[in-house]
Design goal:
- There is one protein chain.
- The strands form two sheets. The protein has a six-stranded parallel sheet with strand order 5-2-1-6-7-8, sandwiched between helices.
- The protein is of the alpha/beta class.
- The protein has a single domain, classed as Isochorismatase-like (Rossmann fold), CATH 3.40.50.850.
- It contains five helices and eight strands; from the N terminus they run E-H-E-E-E-E-H-E-H-E-H-E-H.
- Bound molecules: zinc ion.
- Zinc ion (ZN) binds next to loops.
């Protein structure tokens, strides 16, 4: 069984959102197309309490992109984004959602940030691993936002957890908080055994991925 994992396709990461990623909106039609060739689709949502410690507003005098040591973990500071229940945390309206079987929420703990759909070992397990295992998923394909954070961590965790892990490169966009982050992310993923493919391969008439 092959599963498609859609990461963080939320308003705050789109143009005009709190933490906009260049070109994020452009991948949504492609992601809708990709959904046609998968029998199982799940999604993640960044889902923060309003006073989340990754928010720069919680640390007066600090800037976005600075790293702070919070409870022994180095955390990058971001603009306030994806607050639980807010419009910014909703899926972008162009995303087809009727085939999404389950949504997994991350960043819910005030103290810990989390860039992986599986959880990060410091945060409670999101349940994604067991969910995929129960459905006998062997291959996971990750698409969405952002290549250099969420996509990378989710795909690398999947490989580490024993799944054949793929990233659909043209259905992802990077934040590039620092120049070269995207390239470094791909190098790290490849080094961790993640396969990088393009959507054309999946959208070709065969084989079926159901
Ligand atoms: Zn976040």
């Amino acid at each position: 069984m092959k599963a498609l994992i859609l990461t963080d396709l939320q308003n705050d990461f789109m143009e005009g959102g709190a933490l906009p990623i260049v070109g994020a909106q452009q991948i949504v039609p492609k992601i809708n197309q990709l959904q046609h060739v998968f029998g199982l689709i799940v999604a993640t949502k960044d889902w923060h309490p309003a006073d989340h410690q990754s928010f720069v507003d919680q640390h007066p005098g600090k800037r976005v992109g600075e790293r702070l040591e919070i409870k022994g973990q180095r955390q990058t500071l971001w603009p306030t984004h994806c607050i639980q229940g807010s419009k910014g945390a909703q899926f972008v309206s162009e995303l087809q959602t009727h085939k999404i079987a389950r949504i997994f929420f991350t960043g819910v703990d005030r103290e810990w940030d989390c860039y992986s759909g599986f959880g990060n070992g410091l945060q409670t397990d999101t349940g994604l691993y067991n969910y995929l295992k129960e459905r006998r998923v062997s291959h996971v394909f990750v698409a969405g936002l952002a290549t250099d954070y969420y996509v990378k961590s989710t795909a690398m965790n999947a490989a580490k957890l024993g799944f054949e892990s793929y990233v659909v490169a043209d259905a992802c966009k990077a934040v590039n908080l620092f120049p070269g982050d995207e390239g470094r992310a791909y190098a790290q993923m490849i080094g961790a055994g993640v396969n990088i493919i393009r959507s054309e391969v999946l959208l070709a008439p065969s084989p079926s991925l159901h």
